[in-house]
Write a structure and sequence with these properties.
Radius of gyration: 28 Å
Number of strands: 19
Strand order of the largest sheet: 10-9-8-17-14-11-13-12
Number of helices: 32
Largest sheet: 8 strands, mixed
Distance between the termini: 43 Å
Bound molecules: adenosine-5'-diphosphate
Strand content: 5-15%
């Protein structure tokens, strides 16, 4: 189909697409148009990776946004002027997608990314035509009544097969159901990888289905074994593994000999780093001088991002044409690597599967080196799903650049060769199944559904759940009803919901209403707060309980310890003996970090060997600071308690100005992990502050201090200074040590001292003074004073390329 022949789209679009080199629609895109995607029809497109799903979404969104009469066939249903929402599965993808859509800004279409904290109401988004957000963000905006949600004409769910994901799938499922209930005319477009049961997704969404295997570039799957590549068409190519070389290196070398690049998928961060290090010696031999020069520049940029071993390791590999890519890297690292790979400067990237999730990095060959991954729940290695492996494989072949793509697994025996063909090469992807009927998902979503007015009774809730994929897929409702009832009990018991009609929604337990009476459900004030804060109710219960009952309870003093075996139904307050140390003053930062670290909203750090002993000792040493009852070593939840303690100490280290690279080493984590933990802690402590306010507890100042400290990574005395933009933890410390202790001091202080403490950087000093509100921030003719503990000021007082960025940026900016 010629792009000029697409009905329902704005007049300017055909020319715009032609300008991008798109003359003809790909066959699945044409099918989508024929199915009415530009005329307001719902659509599920199940199409292979890199086959142009994004354009299908763009066609739908632009026709919805610009449906203001420009459309000649004005009679088409649903094509009304409105907003479009594009839901991405990962936060990291939101800005990448928005950048893609920004190409339409020249045509008057505005694009915004909904980021920021969960609780922000996003009113500014009301002016954007296209909004990009994660499903969690959309869920939160719905809970907080973002006004523009009612104006939506079109919603696109990217990677909708992820409804199958146990952790995040239910949010996407429930969010789509809510958006569709709010606005029955909403056009829903769902984009999926190729799956076996796309028809069920279409059923659920009342959508037309485009189910296609078409790819713009040929893909051959295969398995390397011995000295040959065995391909699915039955052919074999010689691919020799030289002595001292492993299979992956041999494949990378073979691809490079043909001027192609390789993407290698492995199963852990450590493996990704190790592979990049090894493969760098292969790619190094193939670089031209010009490439080497540009790679050196990129390596320098990478070193500038953060001051850690990960950063150095990455830069070392990049200088030789190889890189790793995983969630422990900072986002700046990841984008530098992605860009250099797309520019063909990097010849190989070894990645964990996060890269397969949507990031556009096609390459000539893909190697799925590890097809098993450690699974904590299974306690061992588990094979990856066919869907995951096929998505990784789908990254092979760059349209217009490569003649074809090849995606290979590696076998170490003849039996394994056969197994891999059966298991992955010839296999169909698993069906996608709703994971909604799980307890954590339901307790969260049931509360939110009631609190934000989508249902006011048990019957109403069950009716709402009829709109979900779970209902489409399961004729038998007993499982869902069973879990629903148990979770309603839980929510009621913890004071988030009230049953029975007409009692005041004030959290008082409504003694005059029959607790079992009536079908009515009402969120308490506390329940409303929890829902708006986007907390898992179990996290909220843990936080409330910890704050109400202070520190220091020990297992030994508690007879009821063994009853704690049913988590979520037993609150620590039921167990702790009140006279035991409950009022030991305000909570400490460590106590608060531990409290939020043990909630299900903070994923914990794993305990490594030796950790158990260390943190057990610490748990006893600092028991008085920990909020709530410390479980007995025999109790199952003791391990979680220790993991949370490890996370808490990491946060405490960060908030005590321990160097970033020391933290990464001490806890065996990457810089991205520190940022992740810090951000989550900030959010949870903010939520704790609101909960404490709601409950009238007097620990709010302590919580606020702990939160600000972790936000800036500083001790308490630096909080004020570090809050000045451009200051950050290291500069704050140097200013403080030079006698400048507050923001107000910055407005009055001797400029030469400020300049000295900032190592003679004039621009920086001026910025800092300006941000602190100083009248005349100019540093002209100021000589830096000598300041104790600060090395040589920079000779020229310049602000050039050698700017001492260190890790000044607050990690929260990430
Ligand atoms: P998917 O979302 O399915 O993984 P993308 O939408 O990212 O794939 O498309 C992959 C590439 O194909 C993009 O670079 C896009 O510009 C290009 N593309 C999409 N549709 C067409 C088309 N009809 N003609 C030419 N190139 C196209």
């Amino acid at each position: 189909m010629d792009v000029a022949a697409i009905p329902g789209v704005p007049d300017w679009l055909p020319e715009h697409l032609q300008g991008e080199g798109i003359e003809e629609l790909y066959p699945p895109q044409a099918e989508a148009v024929e199915a009415g995607v530009t005329e307001g029809r719902n659509l599920v497109a199940s199409v292979p990776t890199a086959s142009g799903k994004t354009l299908v979404a763009e066609l739908a969104m632009l026709s919805a946004v610009a449906g203001d009469g420009t459309d000649a066939s004005g009679a088409t249903e649903g094509a009304t002027d409105g907003k479009a929402l594009y839901i991405v599965p990962l936060r990291a993808l939101a800005s990448e997608k928005a950048e893609e859509f920004e190409q339409f800004e020249q045509d008057g279409v505005s694009v915004g990314v909904a980021t920021g904290n969960y609780e922000s109401d996003g009113e500014w988004l009301a002016d954007q035509d296209i909004i990009v957000a994660t499903s969690e963000k959309v869920d939160s905006l719905v809970r907080n009544d973002a006004p523009w949600i009612d104006d939506l004409a079109c919603v696109v769910a990217d990677e909708v097969h992820l409804v199958d994901d146990g952790e995040r799938g239910p949010t996407l499922e429930v969010t789509l159901a809510k958006l569709r209930q709010l606005n029955p005319d909403l056009q829903t477009v769902a984009l999926s990888a190729t799956i076996g049961n796309a028809d069920e997704l279409a059923d659920w969404l009342g959508a037309e289905l485009v189910d296609s295997d078409w790819r713009p570039i040929e893909l051959q799957k295969g398995v390397h074994y011995g000295q040959a590549l065995h391909l699915e068409d039955g052919s074999q190519q010689r691919l020799e593994v030289q002595s001292g070389e492993n299979e992956t290196a041999a494949i990378v070398r073979d691809t490079l000999a043909d001027d192609g690049s390789t993407l290698v998928f492995v199963n852990s961060r450590r493996n990704a780093e190790a592979a990049a290090r090894r493969l760098a010696s292969t790619t190094d031999d193939f670089l031209t001088d010009a490439e080497r020069e540009r790679l050196a520049e990129i390596a320098a940029e990478i070193r500038d991002v953060s001051d850690t071993e990960t950063s150095d390791d990455l830069a070392d590999a990049v200088a030789k044409g190889a890189a790793f890519h995983h969630a422990g890297c900072a986002s700046e690292h990841r984008s530098l690597v992605e860009e250099a790979f797309r520019d063909r400067l990097l010849k190989v990237v070894s990645a964990t599967p996060t890269l397969a999730a949507g990031v556009n990095t096609p390459s000539r060959r893909v190697v799925v080196r590890d097809w098993r991954r450690y699974d904590g729940a299974a306690g061992g290695m588990k094979p990856l799903s066919v869907l995951e492996v096929h998505q990784m494989m789908g990254r092979a072949g760059r349209p217009g650049l490569d003649p074809y793509g090849e995606a290979v697994l590696i076998a170490s025996s003849h039996d394994e060769l056969d197994e891999l063909f059966e298991r992955y090469v010839w296999a169909e992807p698993e069906p996608v199944e709703s994971k909604l009927a799980a307890e954590p998902a339901l307790r969260t979503h049931l509360l939110a559904t009631v609190a934000s007015g989508f249902a006011a009774s048990r019957t109403g809730l069950l009716e709402f759940l009829e709109r979900t994929l779970h209902a489409t897929q399961n004729a038998d409702r007993s499982q869902l009803e069973g879990v629903t009832d148990r979770m309603l009990d839980y929510l009621e018991r913890n004071g988030f919901l009230q049953r029975g009609a007409q009692s005041a929604p004030d959290g008082s337990s409504g003694e005059d209403s029959d607790p079992r009476g009536g079908d009515q459900l009402q969120a308490t004030n506390l329940g409303h707060t929890v829902s708006r804060l986007y907390l898992d109710p179990m996290s909220a219960a843990e936080i409330v309980d910890g704050l109400e009952h202070g520190g220091g309870g020990t297992a030994e003093t508690t007879e009821a310890a063994d009853e704690a075996s049913e988590p979520g139904f037993t609150r620590a307050s039921d167990l702790v003996e009140d006279e035991d140390g409950a009022d030991g003053g305000p909570p400490t930062a460590l106590g608060l970090y531990h409290l939020v670290a043990r909630t299900p909203d903070m994923y914990e750090l794993y305990l490594r060997s030796g950790d158990e002993e260390e943190y057990t000792a610490m748990a006893y040493e600092r028991e008085d600071e920990l909020l709530g009852r410390t479980p007995h070593e025999r109790e199952e939840r003791f391990d979680d308690w220790l993991s949370a303690l490890k996370t808490a100490r990491l946060l405490e280290d960060w908030a005590s100005e321990v160097e970033e690279d020391e933290i990464t080493e001490r806890y065996g984590v990457g810089p991205g992990d520190i940022r992740g933990k810090v951000e989550t802690a900030q959010w949870l402590l903010g939520a704790a502050e609101s909960l404490a306010g709601e409950l009238g507890l007097d620990c709010t100042p302590a919580i606020r201090e702990a939160r600000t400290r972790v936000e800036h990574g500083v001790r308490a005395e630096l909080v004020d200074l570090a809050g000045v933009r451009g200051v950050g933890r290291k500069r704050a410390r140097r200013l403080y040590d030079a006698g400048i202790r507050t923001r107000a001091d910055l407005r009055e202080a001797d400029k030469s001292v400020v300049l000295g403490a900032l190592r003679g950087r004039e621009k920086t000093a001026e910025n800092v003074l300006e941000n602190a509100g100083r009248q005349d921030p100019s540093m002209e003719d100021i000589e830096p004073a000598e300041v104790d503990g600060v090395e040589e000021p920079v000779a020229n007082g310049g602000d050039g390329a050698d700017e001492d960025e260190e890790d000044q940026s607050s990690l929260g900016d990430f």
